[in-house]
Design brief:
This protein is α+β, with helices and mostly antiparallel strands and about 325 residues long. It has two domains: about 180 residues, DD-peptidase/beta-lactamase superfamily (Beta-lactamase, 3-Layer(aba) Sandwich); about 130 residues, Beta-lactamase (3-Layer(aba) Sandwich). Helices cover about 45% and strands about 10% of the residues. The strands form two sheets. A five-stranded antiparallel sheet has the order 2-1-7-6-5. Strands 3-4 form a two-stranded antiparallel sheet. It is globular and about 60 Å long. The structure holds glutamine. Glutamine (GLN) binds next to loops. One of its GO terms (molecular function) is glutaminase activity. Belongs to the glutaminase family. This is Glutaminase. Homotetramer.
Length: about 325
């Protein structure tokens, strides 16, 4: 296996150098001013296998803010705190086919519930359902879950939080709309403060790979079989990642890559390859979590080189769940 690992490591390094040139086709997010400072040439990947294999290449040590990937964490935590039934009564599980921050489709749906927890409307509604009266109280169970998964407590990047807070007109509009239609269960300002803070949690690709690994293993830590996320909640999170995780490019991602995934505008992607039943020869037949970081984005807000890299890896290692 050690030899196997060295050999696979060389492949992953080659793939990073090949796909790095695609970063030129994208642009870093600029609607949150501080995100515009990211280096568009960066591309990094971490792959953590349930078999203990670890592959890392490219810029793996650059911290970045979790952004929309936090929607997976807040939804999981809300399900754990409030119950799955409670959450699914209040937020739907259907892809929108619209941009992540779309407000139009909300209006058209009038009083029906937000489409899904991974677009801003649904995510802000979910955050309002977290228990607690202050943003710190609401964030606490998210930090506790991250601490259990990662083995350390990540921090909020205060500069990104402030930048996001001060450039948040669209999210405020969504918040007011949720308030009007009865889908906001906490004070609007507290909810938005919580949402901007959760988006500003700083992580690395290793952290994304580790979260992905736990999800691939249905919520259990493969090292010691401890349950970190209830199996039912992990399953729902993965179904939502597959159908809604890449915004309005989710269908293409499912078709060409074929694994549950979630992206964020800072250029992170978390991809989850669950265990496979066939072909013992494949390196990750027992499942793996993959973290990618590539801040140059395509027009949907997904890492442009990151998606291509994942597509290539998924086809090389037959990761598609289909
Ligand atoms: N904080 C960002 C926002 O709400 C997250 C969006 C994203 O990553 N797509 O605008």
């Amino acid at each position: 296996t050690k030899q196997n690992q060295e050999w696979l490591q060389e492949y992953v390094e080659d793939w990073i150098s090949f796909y790095r040139k695609h970063t030129k086709e994208g642009k870093v997010a600029s609607y949150i001013p501080l995100l515009a400072e990211a280096n568009p040439d960066h591309l990094g990947i971490s792959i953590f296998g349930a078999n203990g294999m670890t592959l890392r290449a490219g810029e793996v040590d650059i911290p970045f803010t979790i952004q929309s990937i936090s929607k997976v964490i807040s939804f999981i935590v809300a399900c754990m705190e409030r119950g799955v039934g409670y959450m699914l009564d209040r937020v739907d599980v259907e892809p929108t086919g619209e941009a992540f921050n779309s407000i139009m489709h909300l209006e058209m749906r009038k009083v029906e519930k937000p489409f899904n927890p991974f677009v801003n409307a649904g995510a802000i509604s979910v955050t309002s359902m977290l228990p607690g009266r202050t943003s710190d109280e609401k964030l606490e169970p998210m930090f506790q879950l991250l601490d259990r998964i990662l083995g350390y407590r990540p921090q909020i990047n205060v500069d990104v939080y402030e930048s996001e807070r001060d450039s948040s007109m669209r999210n405020r509009a969504i918040g007011y709309y949720l308030l009007e239609t009865g889908f906001l269960e906490s004070d609007l300002n507290i909810t938005l403060e919580t949402y901007f803070k959760q988006c500003s949690i700083e992580i690395t690709v290793d952290d994304l790979a580790q979260i992905g690994l736990i999800l691939a293993n249905d919520g259990e830590d493969p090292k010691n079989q401890q349950e970190i996320i209830p199996r039912q909640v992990a399953r729902i999170a993965k179904a939502l990642m597959l159908t809604c995780g890449m915004y309005d490019a989710s269908g293409k991602f499912a078709t060409y890559v074929g694994v549950p995934a979630k992206s964020g505008v800072s250029g992170g992607i978390i991809a989850v390859a669950p265990p496979r039943v066939r072909d013992e020869e494949l390196p990750f037949v027992d499942g793996c979590g993959i973290g990618v970081f590539g801040p140059a984005l395509d027009d949907k807000g997904n890492s442009i080189a990151g998606i291509r890299l994942l597509r290539h890896i998924a086809s090389q290692w037959d990761l598609s769940i289909f």
